Amino acid sequence: MGLWERIKRIFRAKTGAALDKMEDPELILQQAIRDMRERIPELNNSVAQVMATEKLLAKQKENLEKQIVELDSKIKAAIKMGRDDIATAYIGQLQQAQIDLQRTTIQLENAQAASQQALKMRDNYVLNLKKRTAEAMQLISAAKQAKLQEQLAQTMETFNIGDDASTFNEMREKIERRVAAAEAKLQLSTSSVDAQMQDIEREAMDIQLQDKLLEYKKQMGLLGSSASESKQITAGTSEANEMSGDVIIEEEKKPEA
Questions:
Q1: pLDDT (tens digit, 9 = 90+) per residue, 206-215?
Q2: Which residue, among 103, 117, 114, has the nearest Cα to 52 in the 3D structure?
Q3: Domain boundaries, the chain
Q4: Which end of the chain has fewer CB atoms surrounding its CB within 10 Å, N or C?
Q5: Which fold has domain 3-166?
Q6: Over residues 17-35, mean pLDDT
Q7: Model pTM?
């Protein structure tokens, strides 16, 4: 293979590949339908010309038939008047008119068949156009769906394999580590001695506030004798408990006999 042939083959291959990438099935199908529709006026014009020829031949046939009838009457009138020379001339015209009528009749029959054939071809073309249009619309819809699926697949592929997926995973790990560290710090802070001391101080504050409230109620005379007696009983009970505790301690200190 020569150098020039190889260059032509490479050029054709690259050109074909570029054209394949540039070709949009949707646009090509739409253009094909437009081209078919644009042929309809031209086709109608051709059919109209064939039908016009048919009508013209039909009119010529009608005129020839009238002419033959008139020539026949003139021939008879000339014979009655004894003008054989005029009758002979009319007979010559009659024969020529009959020949023309026969030829025109054949042409008219052919024109009628041509008109019917042209109309049939036009109707078939229109029917084929409708069929192709419906098929093209289905193909265009399928092409759009395929394009959408390709875009969706590309997006999903990028999401699953690309940088976005690694970014999401990395951020998820960082957030989970941060949440775990925060939970650990909270657990340590709630279980420490400082937290327990804060709870004790808060409880002591509540006791002081309750005592202050009872003092205010006592000053205002809102607490009766029952409240005082119950307070004294509570105090006596506390002293008895303290004494019993001291006795138990003393007994534990005594040596066994």
A1: 888 888 888 8
A2: 114
A3: 3-166, 188-234
A4: C
A5: Helix Hairpins (1.10.287)
A6: 69
A7: 0.45
